[in-house]
Design a protein that fits this description.
The protein has about 425 residues and is α/β, with parallel strands linked by helices. The protein has a single domain, classed as Alpha-Beta Barrel (TIM Barrel). It is built from twelve helices and 18 strands. The strands form three sheets. Strands 1, 2, 3, 4, 5, 16, 17 and 18 form an eight-stranded mixed β-sheet that branches. Strands 6-7-8-9-10-13-14-15 form an eight-stranded parallel β-sheet, with helices on both faces. It has a two-stranded parallel ribbon with strand order 11-12. Helix 4 crosses helix 7 and helix 10 runs antiparallel to helix 11. It is globular, with a radius of gyration of 21 Å.
Length: about 425
């Protein structure tokens, strides 16, 4: 299939590209940008005028709920939602059932994602067997099976010696450790940030130090082990300061943040809004501003959806008894583009946090355009306004805290290996 995308604004931060040009695709790869190759006759033309053409988005954390939690969502439902959001590559955490600590589970995820073929799914393997934080998982075998990194998901590794050994083992395997930092003793039974809203609502609280103490411990062990670590879903301004200092020291660390934490704060808990029960918890306005500042200055490398679809029952109990997490695949891009409108980032920075930067963290060949690159492409109408309606989300999880928000920026097409996996039905200028 030979395809041309006509006169789109090509934004490719990996190659410092931002220009109006035609893009040519053949056999699933980009063969030219600008002038048409000799003798090229397209089978399909996509009109890109007044649209942004960028690499397919790379999401560092989206739970697809399969295997084990298919009553919440499936790989098929969530990769379909991802395609509608311009996401072509997804890293999924290992806290499935069974846990991703054997080659068999990795192979199962690969087979089911290939069957749907709506996005590329990259499993993260478990750091410890069963995520129990006690014995090291077989990281060499997990890497050989196709895991692009290792993680213990939300499960704590309280024993510092075990954490040290996992980092050392990961380093010998040349695997990036995706580390969620939270001291389980300081968190205790907390469900909300230790601040004005936890007091007002009478909710068990989680202090800032639950994160910062764990980040500090991990950084010291990174310094000792030399392991490559991505600090996942940071939520406090103080953590950003710690990461900034570590980067200046030359430690091999990166960081990401969830899109929800760039917009919502503890105040959004309102009257026990369980859709805003997240992990890590929504923090203060000061922390939100610190996260945005860290993103603009490059201390935070990537934005992820931290997508966690839930069934209705999981969010219907009293606040403390509900399950944390939000369904956010479909708002990742427009909310990131809103950061450009707000003046927090420029367009190249925003696109980079969703494409080449997370791709580098994951160690995958994605997030860039250019001759010879696989044609994983997202086409965006940057002026298209739409309202988030949970009942219209393609994700099986309707637990979206942005319901009713009016957003600007909509994906019109998503291409995976040159094949259109999503096309906005209202887009009448495609032929």
């Amino acid at each position: 299939m030979r395809t041309v995308i006509r006169k789109g604004r090509i934004v490719d931060p990996a190659n410092n590209q931002d220009r109006i040009a035609d893009l040519y695709i053949n056999n699933g790869k980009i063969i030219a940008i600008g002038d048409a190759p000799a003798g090229f006759k397209p089978d399909h033309t996509i009109e890109g005028k007044d649209r942004i053409v960028c690499p397919g988005l790379v999401d560092l954390s989206a739970r697809l709920c399969e295997p084990g939690y298919e009553y919440k969502a499936t790989i098929a439902s969530e990769t379909t939602a991802a395609a509608s959001a311009g996401i072509t590559s997804i890293c999924c955490p290992p806290d499935t059932y069974p846990v991703v600590d054997t080659s068999a589970v990795v192979e199962l995820i690969h087979q089911r994602s290939l069957k749907t073929n709506m996005a590329r799914v990259y499993p993260l393997g478990a750091l410890t067997h069963g995520l129990e934080g006690e014995t090291l998982a077989e990281m060499h075998a997990l890497k050989s099976a196709g895991c692009v990194g290792v993680s213990n998901a939300y499960a704590p590794i309280d024993n510092s010696a075990v954490l040290r050994h996992t980092l050392e083992y990961a380093a010998t395997c040349d695997l990036t450790v995706h580390l969620f930092c939270e001291d389980s003793y300081l968190r205790d039974q907390g469900v909300a940030h230790e601040g004005i809203m936890s007091v007002r609502l009478g909710l068990p609280s989680i202090p800032e130090t639950a994160e910062t103490v764990a980040v500090s411990r991990a950084l010291l062990l990174v310094e000792q082990s030399g392991a490559r670590v991505n600090f996942c879903r940071l939520s406090t301004a103080r953590s950003i300061e710690l990461i900034e200092h570590a980067k200046k020291q030359g430690l091999p660390v990166t960081a990401d943040v969830s899109i929800a934490h760039l917009y919502l704060t503890e105040m959004d808990l309102g009257t026990f809004n369980s859709y805003c029960y997240l992990r890590p918890p929504l923090r203060s306005q000061y922390d939100k501003e610190g996260l945005r500042r860290g993103l603009a200055e490059g201390t935070i490398d990537a934005i992820c959806s931290n997508h966690q679809p839930h069934d209705d029952d999981a969010k219907s109990a009293p606040f403390s008894m509900t399950e944390p997490g939000a369904s956010t695949l479909e708002v990742l891009l427009p909310l990131t583009l809103q950061l450009v409108r707000d003046g927090s980032l420029n367009l190249a920075q925003a696109i980079a946090t969703l494409t080449i930067k997370p791709a580098k963290i994951a160690g995958i060949n994605a997030g860039h355009l250019g001759k010879g690159a696989v044609a994983d492409i997202c086409i965006i109408d940057p002026e298209k306004s739409w309202t988030v309606k949970t009942d219209e989300l393609l994700s099986a999880g309707k637990n979206n805290p942005f319901n009713g928000w009016e957003l600007t920026g909509k994906v019109t097409h998503t291409l995976l290996g040159g094949r259109i996996v999503f096309e906005d039905q209202s887009c009448l200028s495609t032929k």
